[in-house]
Design brief:
Number of domains: 2
Number of helices: 9
Largest sheet: 7 strands, mixed
Mean pLDDT: 95
Radius of gyration: 20 Å
Bound molecules: NADP nicotinamide-adenine-dinucleotide phosphate
Helix content: 25-40%
CATH class of the largest domain: Alpha Beta
CATH architecture of the largest domain: Alpha-Beta Complex
Structural class: alpha/beta
CATH topology of the largest domain: Quinone Oxidoreductase, Chain A, domain 1
Strand content: 25-35%
Number of strands: 15
Length: 344
Amino acid sequence: MQDFPCYLVRRLGDGAIQARVEQIGLAQLPPGDVLIQVAYSSLNYKDALAAQGHPGIARKLPHVPGVDAAGTVVESQADHIAVGQQVLVTGCSLGEDRFGGWSQYVRMPSESVVPLPEGLSLFESMALGTAGFTAAQCVLAIQQREIDPQRGPVLVTGATGGVGSFAVALLAKAGYEVVALTGKQEQADYLRTLGAAQVVDRSALDDGSDRPLLTARWSAAVDTVGGRPLVNILRSTQHRGVVAACGLVAGAELPLTVYPFILRGVSLIGIDSAQCPMAPRLEIWKRLASDWKLDYLDTIARVITFDDLPASVEQILAGKIVGRVVVQPQAAVVPAASPSGDAS
Ligand SMILES: NC(=O)c1ccc[n+]([C@@H]2O[C@H](COP(=O)([O-])OP(=O)(O)OC[C@H]3O[C@@H](n4cnc5c(N)ncnc54)[C@H](OP(=O)(O)O)[C@@H]3O)[C@@H](O)[C@H]2O)c1
C-alpha cells in the first residue's frame, strides 16, 4: 500500500514542536490485529493538547493525535471483526500511547474496536465521538443514582463545548430541566435549541465566599470544567444529589470541605471514558444509536480537513469552539517526503 497522509507532531532539533501533514507508511503504525481506513475522526480538548506535544497526552514523539476514529476495516486477524465492516474506536490509548485518528489509517487491537451500531452513520458516530460517549456516561451515572427529573434542575458546565453540548441535549431528551452554564451568552439560542431550559452566565455560579455550603439548587450536575466551578457546584448541590465530573479546563485543583458529602450526602462521580470496559461501552453506543439518538447531530457538529486543524486547535484551547468538530483525514496539499518517525 502507498504511503498515506496523517497529521504528525514531532520535536525539531531546536526543541520546538512541529505539527503538520506528512506521509507515513503502514509499517509506522503500532501493532494490532485490525487495520481501519478512517472516514472520520474528531477534535477533542485532549487532541488539541496532543497537537501541541503535551507530554501528558502525546506520551512519545513523533505522534499522531486523534482519540476518535471511525471507518471501514481493511485487514483483520480477529474472528469477530470482518474486513469491510464499519467500526469505531474512542479512547483505548488511540491518539495517546498509539498513533491516533488524524490519519487515513489506524491499527488497533480488536478488543478496543466497536462495531458501528445499527442506526448510526460513520459521520454521526464521530459527531458524537468521545464527547458524546462521555456525556452519555455522565447522564447514565445520574440516572443510575435515581435522580428523577422531578427532583429539580440539573446543571451543565462548559455547556457549549463538545461534552457540554451533548450533556445538555441528552439530559433534556431524558426529561430533565437543564440549566446550561456558559461563558458564551451569545450562544444562548444554540443551547436552547439543544434543550436548555435556562442559560446562565458562568460568573453567576461563584458567590465569592468560602462558605462550605451554599443554597441547595441542583439535583444533579454534569461538570466538564473542574476547578473552582466544581467546588461551587458541590457546595450548592441538593441533599443526596449527584455530580458527574469529567473535565479540567478551568483547573485540576479541588479546594473544598467534606461538608457537601457528610451533611448533604452529595455523591461526586468520576467519569473516565478512555478506559471504559467493553460491555458498558457497547451498551452506551447502542443507546446513542437508538433511544438516545439525537436527530440534529449535524447542528452540533461541523466537518473540517487537516488544513483547518491548526486554527481549530487554537480555538478549542481558547475555549472558543461551539459544539463538535469532525475531522475528515484529507488535506489540499500533501507533501511527498516520508518522515523518519517510528511507530508509537
Ligand atoms: N473524563 C473523560 O473521560 C473525558 C472525556 C472527554 C473530555 N474530557 C474533558 O472534558 C473537558 C471538556 O472537553 P471538550 O472536548 O468538551 O472540550 P471543549 O469542546 O473545549 O469544551 C470545553 C468548554 O468549557 C468551557 N470553558 C473553557 N474554558 C473555561 C474556563 N477557563 N472556565 C470555565 N469554563 C471554561 C467552554 O464552554 P462555555 O463557553 O460554554 O462555558 C468550552 O467550550 C476537557 O477538560 C476534557 O479533557 C474528559
